Hints:
Blueprint: H1 2-12, H2 23-30, E1 34-36, E2 42-51, E3 57-65, E4 72-78, E5 82-85, E6 88-91, H3 98-104, E7 106-109
Parallel strand pairs: 1-6
Antiparallel strand pairs: 1-2, 2-3, 3-4, 4-7, 5-6
Amino acid sequence: MLRLVLAVLFAVGLLSPAQALTQEQIVRELIGKPVYSMDGKQVGTVADIALGHDKELETLMMNTDRSLGFGERTVKVPGSVFIALRGSIVLDLPAASMDVLIEHGETVSN
């Protein structure tokens, strides 16, 4: 009976099936969103995300403060180190490791 009701609602346009977001849409929604360390501390914001040939999240470009809080830096983070989760990015690193990532990671801009 429930299937019949749902089928009728779809047919008359009162209910539409949920549409999954494309990876490109997900990337657009994540730009400017917070980046968190694995221990829950905000460590930056999303500047951009590059997709691979398979449309998977490949590289994160994140804006973060420099050491001692002077200025901002954009750092490139490989896809194996982060995950998109509930409108933000979570790194597979504790906040204490951020200085190492910032100082030794690939810097996109100063």
